[in-house]
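User: Reviewer 2 asked us to show a designed sequence for the structure in our supplementary figure. I'm pasting the structure tokens here. Could you produce the per-position amino acids so we can include them in the response letter?
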């Protein structure tokens, strides 16, 4: 009997490894948090606390000590007088990107901190190659320092600004290949090697209000996006995709609406279970 119970427990534990799990319930995921990013060494994380709405949005941080995430506090660079969102560590840990609503007339802008020999620099606003009078948000960086982000025009679209060692960031351009549609397309997570992009879209054919999609890069072209499936996507809204490079886990957020209140938490899923290699083989590109 004890042997059968042990086998049953092992099977349950094994099955759970392939399931979506809430990330750090209560401490981090407390029904009012979204938009996580974990440093590539796995020792620090940043996320957004939203308090069930969008009126107040603040950046928080936590450190992992002896395998345990500590109680979060305001991010060391945060300015609590402003709404701030979408923190993102660069894949080599040398930069932090985030968005701040300093001026309502200018919308959200992308800011950057750089790690130096003496610690983190002060936040600085990126150039007009990226920031405009429109909302620019959810910026992520590849190893070559190219930045992918969302710009809100008539709808949300995904742009890229390429880094040039001589002249800095180049004028941002919208992505092609069916990534952008007449629907809302946003929250781009660019892989470290810039070979795939995971983002959210409200286009037709999804499982819910907003689903997560993946597109693959070949040369300078992006494949037709593929829905990453109903292991992740639900009838609600999934958003804020990222990868914990220290554990190879896919992280994302989910919003559940209860009247006017948003129930928001962060979730994790084994990266290998996304089967990105299989999806890449199925990818198609426009001629």
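Assistant: Here is a per-position design you can include in the supplement:
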């Amino acid at each position: 009997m004890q042997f059968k119970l042990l086998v049953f427990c092992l099977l349950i534990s094994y099955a759970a490894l392939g399931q979506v799990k809430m990330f750090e319930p209560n401490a981090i995921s407390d029904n009012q948090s979204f938009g996580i990013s974990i440093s590539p060494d796995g020792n620090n994380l940043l996320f957004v606390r939203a308090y069930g709405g969008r009126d107040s949005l603040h950046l928080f941080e936590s450190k992992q000590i002896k395998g345990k995430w500590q109680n979060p506090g305001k991010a060391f660079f945060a300015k609590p007088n402003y709404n701030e969102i979408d923190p993102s560590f660069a894949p080599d840990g040398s930069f932090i990107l985030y968005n701040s609503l300093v001026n309502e007339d200018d919308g959200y802008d992308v800011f950057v901190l750089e790690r130096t020999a003496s610690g983190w620099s002060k936040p600085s606003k990126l150039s007009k190659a990226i920031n405009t009078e429109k909302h620019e948000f959810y910026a992520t960086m590849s190893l070559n320092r190219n930045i992918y982000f969302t710009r809100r025009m008539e709808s949300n679209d995904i742009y890229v600004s390429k880094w040039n060692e001589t002249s800095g960031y180049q004028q941002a351009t919208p992505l092609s290949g069916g990534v952008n549609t007449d629907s809302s397309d946003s929250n781009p997570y660019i892989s470290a090697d810039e070979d795939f992009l995971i983002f959210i879209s409200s286009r037709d054919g999804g499982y819910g209000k907003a689903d997560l999609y993946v597109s693959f890069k070949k040369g300078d072209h992006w494949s037709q996006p593929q829905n990453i499936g109903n292991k992740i996507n639900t009838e609600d809204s999934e958003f804020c995709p990222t990868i914990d490079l220290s554990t190879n886990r896919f992280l994302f957020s989910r919003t559940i609406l209860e009247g006017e209140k948003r129930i928001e938490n962060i979730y994790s899923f084994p990266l290998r279970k996304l089967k990105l290699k299989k999806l890449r083989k199925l990818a198609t590109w426009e001629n």
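For the response letter, you might also mention the following. The chain is about 10% helix and 45% strand. Residues 22-282 form a domain with the Neuraminidase fold (CATH 2.120.10.30).
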